Amino acid sequence: MNISVGKSFKALVKREYWEHKGAIFYTPAIMAAIFAGLMLLGTITGNNVSVNGHDSFDYMEYLPQAVEQFENLDEQERSNGVQIGLNAPMVMFGFVMLIISLFYCLGALYDERKDRSILFWKSLPISDTTTVLSKFVAVCFLIPLFYFGVLAVFQLFLLLFATVVAWFGGSSGVTIWTSSNLFGVLFNGLFSLIITSLWLAPLWGWLMLASSWAKKVAFLWGTLPIFMISVAEGMIFHSSSFIEMVGERIADGFAILNSNMHYLVGADMFDIHVMRWYEVFSSMEFWAGLFVTAVFLAGAVFTRRHRDES
Amino acid sequence: MTTLIEAKGLSKSYGSHQALKSADFSVKRGRIVGLVGPNGAGKTTILKAILGLTSYEGDLKVLGLDPARQRHQIMQKVSFIADVAVLPRWMKVSEALEFVTEVHPNFDLNKAKHFLSKTNIPMQARVKELSKGMVAQLHLALVMSIEAELLVLDEPTLGLDILYRKEFYNQLLADFFDEGRSILVTTHQIEEIENLLTDLIFIRDGEIVLDATMEDVSEKYIEVMVSKDDAEKAEALNPVMQRDVFGRKVYLFEGVSREELEPLGELHSPSVADLFVAKMKEGK
User: Fold this and answer.
1) Considering the entire predicted model, what is its pTM?
2) B77 lies in which domain range?
């Protein structure tokens, strides 16, 4: 009797979901629920907003006018507007996802040693390589997939919300859906999230290595060496290429994440050249990054295998 | 294969401290081996080496495999309970069952469910919600459902109350142990397992000072209760230890024949605890 590596791997990724359900699913779900709740609340209570403290403002009166304006926009502008609206939450969801991923990596190979559960995991017939890879796959694919799923539901809610608003403004709301390029928004959203995470993979790999190594405070092991290298570089070579490289990598990551939005708003969201997610594949830096990631992960596997646990 | 573990010249140093000094021992199939020694003697180092959790020098084969390189293969046939604290606290009981089913080729889910049905452990509870005793029961249920050839226990009953401790070993004997398997156990509570053991290994300062079957032990080590008048005669036979009990003296002899000792008084087999104390003091 044997269990294929594939089956163990699936079980391991599922295990990551079980352990981090709060960060992977509940965090974005609660965020979406709060945004949705605020929008609904604002619509219901906002019917009688007093502007400047005296005039009572009834936006229901203005709604037909606004809807008409929207319908009269040319197709390109209308579509851009809807897509900007749909992409706006991604800025927030993507940012939270990256923060979550950062802490996930720092804990990935540290928490199990801290609570000694590593002795349980190591009592099972699973190699260190499979374990470390499962955690890497969790950060690059599992987490983005869940954030995408929640984001997609929220984007659908936005469209439905806008449709209902359009009804009150005397329109059928069909134009909102036809201008939404919904499939494209979802497709680009999913891949931006995944490719951003892969672009930042060297960071994840490094943090996982630090996490496998740290005896205490994995966060310091993850960050201090980066600063120490920068300081050393500054003192020896009077330059700062290393920290610039790290900074650029992270900035480019955010740019890729928000590339859809960037080009929708006329390419003036970032001052740097922004790659769309599919352009990333033709960037040498991307592949070099994956190579560096592989080295870090190999180091993490080695450390997990040989680290003396007591 | 009748030898499950074979160690030759097993050594391990932490910096300048030598935790293991060229230890030789073996564990055969169908045995329950107690590995006994004071804190810091190297017990845990031996277990960790066997389980592939630490590096070492020397020759070590577990089920014919090299633990430093082939841990995940060895773990298909070896189970391990460290102490009650190591099950992940966030995990639900049902998740633990599902996970082990999916990653362990020799795990029998129905068996585990059967064991758990005899406890008060709810399937949806998280490990952190269970009492220490329940966590130990859960871990034991998981481990006993694995068709393992070797079970390694490192202080498995540490921190458990007496009811659970008794139950732990009783269940292990009734539902797990048979002539096809072996158990290697370390514990400070020697009295608890004394009657289960078939073999005894004592370790002191990284060296094996005793490695024998219980039959050998009871043949080789004899305790005699001697009245004060015969004390000199007894001491002439070089006892390894003596203690006073109600105005009489109890001497422990190593390798002295029964015929020589019988005239001095009543003969007993020493308890493992007394033997342990004698062996630890030897030569000091």
Assistant:
1) 0.89
2) 3-205
